[in-house]
Every structure is written in structure tokens, then in C-alpha cells.
Amino acid sequence: MKAARQETTITTEERLQEPANLSVREWKNKIFKGIFTAAAGFSLLMLIVLILRIFTQGIGYLDWNLITSFASRNPSDAGILAAFVGTIWLMAVTAPISFILGVGTAIYLEEYANKNRFTSLIQTNISNLAGVPSVVFGLLGLTLFVRELAMGRSIIAGALTMSLLILPIIVVASQEAIRSVPTNLKEASYAMGATNWQTIYRVVLPAALPGILTGNILALSRAIGETAPLIMIGALTYIAFLPENLLSQFTVMPIQIFNWTSRPQEEFHLVAAAGIIVLLAMLLLMNSIAVWIRNKFQRRF
Amino acid sequence: MSMKKVWLLLALAAVMVFAAACGEGEPEDSEGSEDTGGTEETEEETSGDGSAEESSSEGGSEEASGEEGELSGEVAIDGSSTVFPIMEAVSEEYTQEHPDVQAPVGVSGSGGGFEKFIAGETDLSNASREMNEEEAAALEENGIEFFEMPLAYDGLSVVVSQQNDFVDHLTVEELKQIWVDGGAETWSDVRDEWPDEPIDRYAPGTDSGTFDYFNEVILEDEDINRNAQMSEDDNVLVTGVQGSPNGIAFFGYAYYAENQDSLKIVPIDNGDGPVEPSEETINDGSYAPLSRPLFTYVKKESLQEPQVLDYVKFLNENAGDMALEVGYVNLTEEEYDENMEKIEEAAGE
Question: Which residues on chain A are in Cβ contact (under 8 Å) with B257?
């Protein structure tokens, strides 16, 4: 530090003689590099602290029993079976719904729709939807799916709500992917006499699919951590049975974890930490699939 | 090229069934759920009393002692997060005895639970406060008859930091002076001999039933001190007051009981001398006015369903023990007897 300070004083004195101001600029460069490295390091440090804390707390409760038993009033018996299976059910139903709706919207907007006021209105609305708080989607799901369409507090109602929540992300990501397919590929297809659909099906989608899938999986990993909208639609907290069909009641891992952390007993906090490890493992798995798909299939044009 | 396409398709398929595949990794669970799938239809239909016998013949031999045969069906329970631990424990025990009855518990909060109760979606609505007039009116409008069933007591505990060596007890007036907006600024404003240090206040959030009750009996609807730090998570309050020598906080008895070693309880004087919250003083009512009852509200119509009636009776029999186990305090025997009378009357027995 001292040496550095001396260097600055010298350079300020010499500024007039040196038109290029070389050392000042290099010094500035170093400062900014330091700032940005610290910024990146900070978030990494926080992540490490979080993971270390979770692991030291939860590792004692992380065993097979955690996955295979239901919640209980005794922390040592408590497990996340219902929540774990509920999360899997919810994701399995949300994924196809949001994929079809999201990618469909993106294809329409990119390939079929004319660029007019109507499409730009849709476009703006989609971007706005991405910023709507998730609780609001929960309210929508409660009035529309749970009450109006009489689906009850079921997996299908939860999955539809979740699909709405992540739809904007999927649409935007899929649009980006479709847009990045070079025009000359499409033009070549049209030149061969292919229809719009043939071009989309044979040329655009195969090229854009890796990007679309990546966007979908990342959107799903957001949905997996959501609590508020599911509590709004009436997802439960204590369940001692597994969902059997789309109309079954359910709970998910974040709800269970949240409930445990708010308990007075310290042991429940530890069980919650173990639950978080399982949730993190699922997230990590999903994200690595996304990375794998991107690396394996992404083509550069 | 074509190989790549195959891979892509495979990847797509993998993503779509990714979650489902995970489920299959758990052979016992998924098979277990499929096995019970057969009884599922009967479960949904047994709301009426007629089919109870059917399911008993189907349900198997586990239930030997039940005089009413094998019960099945669903009990819909939602409401307060404060009451949740009791209900969770009761449901856990009940499921052991009647594995075919589904009695899941939701946590929508007292108000959110009532909203679902008013919409007719739940059989039991848990609350850490009494139902207010608007809610009762809405229920009447929807033609839903109900009765109130106290389950247990919670003693709101007022605590200070262990480093605080001057507070020996507080009267109800002093408590109000500390918490009300425009009241005491420093501890010396409360009593002259106490130090001239500002008070740090930690309180449950205004959405909670705990706050509602404190508001009713201590603040008497005046505003809470604007410097009070509010949190919906009582564990945050515990941590806050632990680390603050001039701090004071209030929260449910269970949170004090779990942290007795690191907190100092403040006995409350309601005119008959200072009383500390404990299982005895809360149970016999001498810890006043901060003992509050926890309720569940029962929809009368639901009692016509045998599994709901059975669950509610089971709840009344076991709520006291379960309450003690999860950190609350049981009611007196007479109060549970009164509940039983209400249940029998409502069920038309």
C-alpha cells in the first residue's frame, strides 16, 4: 500500500510532463480490477459461507430416514418424504405445461406474428409479467384454478400456477434462442419451397432447442424454490400420504423447510438444514443438466 | 448429424421425465402410493356414511379395536401457524391409528384459514385469536354453522437479555408504557432507579395472532412504539434480544422454553404480585393477562362425516398432551369436557 501511494504522488507531479499519463491510467486499471474482483469474490464468499453453514448444521440429520419418512413432531423422526415427492410431482407436471405454452408463444412471436402494435403489446406484457411478485400469481391461481375451475388445492392447480409464474422467463429465453438461428438457414429452407411450419420444425427448432431447453430448466429451478404462491393456493404443510394423481393435495420442500426453521426447537432448524441440502442437490442436478445440454448441443454459427 | 438429433431427442425426453424418473428411483414410495391407489376412489366417496362398511371390508385387517370399523376419507384442516405444531402432532398420531384417513394440515395463518373456512373449503380452522365479527358474519351469510373449540394455552412471555440485571418484574401498566408509541424512551422512564439507556424493542409482526393478542390486552389498540423491530419469525426476536443488553421482547412460551438458558424471563404483575409464565401458572390462569387460548373452529356440517367426527373427538382427547409436547400448555379437564359436550351436541348425538 505504501509503495503504491508513493507511486501516485510521483505520477501526479509528473502528469504535466507525461502526456500519455501512463502510470495513472495503469494505476486506475489496477484499482478497478481490484474492485470488480472483490465484487465477484464477495458473492462467492457468501455462497461458501452459506453452504458451509448448511452442511455443518444439516449433515447430522442427512440420512436415508430423512427421505423415507413423513414429517413428525419429533425432530429425530421428521423426514421430507411428502415434500420431496410433492416437489417432484409438481415439477413433472409444470415442465410439460410451461414448455408447450412458453415455446409455443415464443414461436408465434418470433416466426408467425407480424411486427405490429398488438405483438409489441404482448411483448411488453410478457416482460412486465416477469417482474410481478410471485404472491400475485398465487392469488391468481387461487381465484382462477382453485376456486373458478374447482381444481381444489391440488397438484394440477399448483402446477398451472407455477407454469404461469415461470412462463415469462421461458418465453423470453426461447425467443432469444430462436432469434439466434441465422436467417440464411431459414432463407435456404424457404428457397427449397418449405412452408413456414416445415422450416420451424426442421430448421429453426433443432438449432434453437439447446437454448430453449437451457432456459426451461433454469426457469424450473426457480419454480422449485418458490413458496409464497403455493401457500396462497393452499398447499399444505403436514401431509402423511403421498400424492396419487393430479388432483391430490400436496406440499413442497420449501414450505416444509420454512415451517421447520420457524419452530422454536433448535433440532428442527437442523432438520431444515438437512432438507436444504436435499433441495440444493436437486437444484444442482437440474442446473448441471442445463449446462450439459448447452455444452453438448450448442452450435455456433 | 442424425446421431446428434437422436441425442437431442433423448435429452428432451430426459428433461420431460427427469422429475418422474427421480420418483421411480424411490421404489418403495411410488409403489406404495400406487398400491393405495385402489382405495382412493372409495376414499373420495365415503363422505356419505353409507360406504363406510364397504371400505372396511376392503381396507384390510389392521384395525381390530375400532368399534366403528375402518374409517377413511379426508379431514381438511388449515389456519394458524401457532396452532400448527399441535395439529401436526395430533394428525401424526391419528394417522397411526387410522391409516386410511387423510388429515393434512395447512398453514395459511389465522386470517387466511378463516377465509378458506368461509369459502367452505375446510372442516377445521385453527386460530390463535378469536374469530372477529366480520368473519362470523361472512360465515352466517354462507350458511356455515360452526362452534369454537379451545385446544390449549400459550403464555406470551416477556423476556430481556441475560445481561439485564435490573428488571425484576413489570406491571401491566409498565409493560404498556414500554411498548406503546409515545411511552417510555429509556429504562429510567419506566422506573427512576433503572439506567438511563434507550429500550430496544423486538416484537412479532402485526399479521401474527401473537401481536393481535398483545395489542388487545396490553396496548389496548394504541400504536406500538415505532422504533420496535418487528419480525414474523420469532427466532429472529430471540436472537435480537439475546444480543441486546437493553432489549426487551415478547413471543410465545415455547420460544422462551427452548431458550431458557440464554434469556431472562420477566414476571408480570397484574395486581396480585409478579407471576412468571410456567406450565402451572398458565394452566391455572394465574399468569394473566398474557395467557391466551388457541382455538380450532369446527364446521358443524362436517361432523356428519364419520371420519371428521372421529378426528375431532380424538383431537379433543389428545390436544392437551400434544400441546405439552410441542411447547404449549394444556387446558383444564373441565374445559376439554365442555368441548366434548359441544361436539356431541353439534353431531346430534
Answer: 264
Edge-to-edge strands of the sheet including B200-204?
Answer: B229-231, B200-204, B247-251, B157-161, B263-265
Q: What is the pTM of this model?
A: 0.77
pLDDT class for B57, splitting at 50, 70, 90? very low
Tell which A residues from 1 to 60 touch B, by Cβ distance under 8 Å.
none
Decide if domain A64-300 falls under CATH 1.10.3720.10. yes
CB contact under 8 A, A95 and B16: yes
State ipTM: 0.73
Our CA-based measurement puts residue A95 at a distance from the nearest CA of chain B, in whole angstroms, of: 7
> Poorest-confidence range of A136-140, A226-230, A270-274, B42-46?
B42-46
Domain boundaries, chain A: 2-61, 64-300
Nearest-angstrom CA–CA distance, A291 and B11: 12
Across the interface, whether the CB atoms of B20 and A96 are under 8 A apart is answered no
Residue in A closest to B95 by C-alpha: A240
**Cβ–Cβ under 8 Å, residues A189 and A203:** yes
